[in-house]
């Protein structure tokens, strides 16, 4: 985990591998009768004036192979759409589940399904709802091993009126690689022990949290600490979010922030671990090409799909074997 260790220790490597789809997702379904794109009906067919704004549906971006508007006909499988900057044929888009292929052979945007309101929600007592939320929150917690967990509970009890010192200790390791001496001295004074004893306690909890955190990242498919650190530190907001995630893991045993950081990294991994991405794609039987500005395209049915799109659309998935 990026910046999580003071001097020694290595992250246990994930045996993550990429898996390709076993079979195409079911096609078909229904959508807007006009195919979901802007245009006008004519006596000879449909005219689609393409644009690159997919906010109102990817069919709004449809165009011919030559890149021109589609005149007096309905789009076919060889026509192109724009999706997150990538140009994809409608046949491939339907295979990836980005659009519907209708029974009559036409294409349309995926229809949004409205969620039905729970008819019993009004009858639930507020106390029941609070208990449900509390139970959900408690379920999503992790522990750091018997010794580290016992030490953490002791610290939470003795430092409960001054939690800022614990946060400061966590932040100092993340930013400098060592525990803040002032924070340790304050915590020791509150508990009535020597600073060396307090440092040993905090280091015990930190090691437990670190081991748990590296396992969480490995399970998510991350094994290169330096690459993940480069991703985290490349953006100030992201760095701040990681610090908050580390605090929540260390003090509260909450892993969701760290998992969110890992999830955000995977679509960008081709820019930080290009060699590893190529090796995994090759092992899984995927063809790929390098992008001129950096990064990797995955070849899907002859179409170059950016790695980021392939990961977000779950064309590329990760497993730990």
Q: How far from one another are the termini?
A: 20 Å
Structural class: alpha+beta
Order of helices and strands: EEEEEHEEHHHHHHHHHHEEEHE
Whole-number radius of gyration?
A: 26 Å
Residue stretches low in confidence (pLDDT < 50, at least 5 long) are 4-17, 19-45, 113-124, 134-138
Overall pLDDT: 78
Strands of the widest sheet, in order across it, are 8-9-10
Major sheet summary line: 3 strands, antiparallel
State the helicity in percent bands: 40-55%
What's the gist of this structure?
This protein is α+β, with helices and mostly antiparallel strands and 321 residues long. It is 44% helix and 13% strand.
Reconstruct the topology from this structure:
Blueprint: E1 16-19, E2 39-42, E3 45-48, E4 80-83, E5 86-89, H1 90-95, E6 99-101, E7 107-109, H2 126-139, H3 146-158, H4 163-176, H5 181-191, H6 195-219, H7 225-233, H8 236-252, H9 256-265, H10 269-272, H11 274-284, E8 287-290, E9 296-300, E10 303-306, H12 307-312, E11 317-320
Antiparallel strand pairs: 1-11, 2-3, 4-5, 6-7, 8-9, 9-10
How would you describe this protein?
With 321 residues, this protein is an alpha+beta fold. The chain is 44% helix and 13% strand. It has twelve helices and eleven strands. It has helices at residues 90-95, 126-139, 146-158, 163-176, 181-191, 195-219, 225-233, 236-252, 256-265, 269-272, 274-284, 307-312; strands at 16-19, 39-42, 45-48, 80-83, 86-89, 99-101, 107-109, 287-290, 296-300, 303-306, 317-320. The strands form five sheets. The protein has a three-stranded antiparallel sheet with strand order 8-9-10. A hairpin with a 2-residue loop joins strand 2 and strand 3. Helix 4 runs antiparallel to helix 5 (181-191) and helix 4 (163-176) packs across helix 8 (236-252). The model is unreliable at 4-17, 19-45, 113-124 and 134-138 (pLDDT under 50).
């Amino acid at each position: 985990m990026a910046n999580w260790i003071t001097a020694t220790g290595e992250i246990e490597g994930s045996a993550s591998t990429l898996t390709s789809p076993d079979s195409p997702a079911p096609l078909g379904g229904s959508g807007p009768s006009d195919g979901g794109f802007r245009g006008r009906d004519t006596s000879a067919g449909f005219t689609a004036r393409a644009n690159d704004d997919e906010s109102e549906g990817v069919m709004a971006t449809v165009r011919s192979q030559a890149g021109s508007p589609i005149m007096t006909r309905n789009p076919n499988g060889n026509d192109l759409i724009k999706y997150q900057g990538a140009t994809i044929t409608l046949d491939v888009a339907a295979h990836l589940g980005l659009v519907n292929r209708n029974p009559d052979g036409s294409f349309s945007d995926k229809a949004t399904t409205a969620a039905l309101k729970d008819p019993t929600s009004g009858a639930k007592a507020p106390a029941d709802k609070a208990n449900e939320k509390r139970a959900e929150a408690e379920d999503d917690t992790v522990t750091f091993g018997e010794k580290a967990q016992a030490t953490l509970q002791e610290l939470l009890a003795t430092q409960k009126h001054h939690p800022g010192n614990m946060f400061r200790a966590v932040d100092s390791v993340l930013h400098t690689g060592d525990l803040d001496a002032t924070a340790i001295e304050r915590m020791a004074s509150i508990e009535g022990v020597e600073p060396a004893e307090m440092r040993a306690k905090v280091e015990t909890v930190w090691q437990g949290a670190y081991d748990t955190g590296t396992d969480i990242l490995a399970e998510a498919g991350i094994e290169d600490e330096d690459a993940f650190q480069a991703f985290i530190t490349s953006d100030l907001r992201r760095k701040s979010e990681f610090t908050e995630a580390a605090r929540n893991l260390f003090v509260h045993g909450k892993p969701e922030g760290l998992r969110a950081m890992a999830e955000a990294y995977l679509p960008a991994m081709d820019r930080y671990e290009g060699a590893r991405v190529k090796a995994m794609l090759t092992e899984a039987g995927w063809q790929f090409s390098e992008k001129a500005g950096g990064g990797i395209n995955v070849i899907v049915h002859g179409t170059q799909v950016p790695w980021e799109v392939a990961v977000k659309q779950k064309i590329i998935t990760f497993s730990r074997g």
